[in-house]
Automatic annotation (TrEMBL):
Pathway: Protein biosynthesis; polypeptide chain elongation. It is found in: Cytoplasm. It comes from Alistipes timonensis JC136. The gene is efp. It comes from the Bacteria. This is Elongation factor P. Gene3D superfamilies: 2.30.30.30, Nucleic acid-binding proteins.
Length: 195
């Protein structure tokens, strides 16, 4: 489907130069002189790189890509990549690790949202939920008196189905080995402790 620059929205997928991009951000600009234009940030869904692009609002045609998001559950990992099963049809697919942001934060049985190019029926990317529950499998104990501070952070290793020795994130000093915590998968930051 062909659209114009005025139709661009965040979350839309477009095709340029034979590659598929996700619109991360955009801004319509109308300078005092000259034609209006759209400044955009586009994420390449093949390699994850974000680039900035400017579209002319006058007459420039953009090819919109139809995508579909489907829920898949992580089952196992091998030399071919990560294997997932559709939660309703039980269809199994293999996804390249590079298509999954923060791949090492996947836990056993984790549900991810897989984005498919509907015409080619190919996987574009897979996203973890924004917040996941994890267990701290190792961290240095907090020093008595320092545990009330939430500004100071220390490294902690959390359980992971895809990282052999676990994934490392930064947590507040009061977190101990064995605690269950919530992690923001977009920023890899500690979110809260589960009581």
């Amino acid at each position: 489907m062909t659209i114009t620059a005025a139709d661009i929205k965040i979350g839309m997928c477009i095709e340029m130069d034979g590659k598929t991009f996700l619109v991360v951000d955009f801004q319509h600009c109308k300078p005092g002189k000259g034609p209006a234009f759209v400044r955009s940030k586009l994420k390449n869904l093949e390699n994850g790189r974000v680039l900035e692009n400017t579209f002319s609002s006058v007459g420039q045609k953009i090819e919109q890509v139809r995508v579909e998001r489907r829920p898949y559950q992580f089952t196992y990992e091998d030399d071919l990549g990560a294997h997932f099963m559709h939660t309703e049809t039980f269809e199994e697919i293999n996804i390249d690790r590079n298509l999954i942001n923060n791949y090492d934060l996947i836990t056993d049985g984790q549900i991810v949202e897989v984005m498919f190019h509907t015409e080619k029926e190919s996987v574009l990317s897979a996203e973890l939920p924004p917040i996941v529950d994890m267990e701290v499998i190792y961290t240095e104990p907090g020093i008595k008196g320092d545990t009330a501070s939430t500004n100071s952070l220390k490294p902690a290793t959390v359980n992971s189905a895809t990282a052999k020795d676990g994934a490392t994130i930064r947590v507040p000093l009061f977190i101990n080995t064995g605690d269950r915590i919530r992690v923001d998968t977009r920023t890899r930051e500690y979110y809260e402790r589960i009581k």
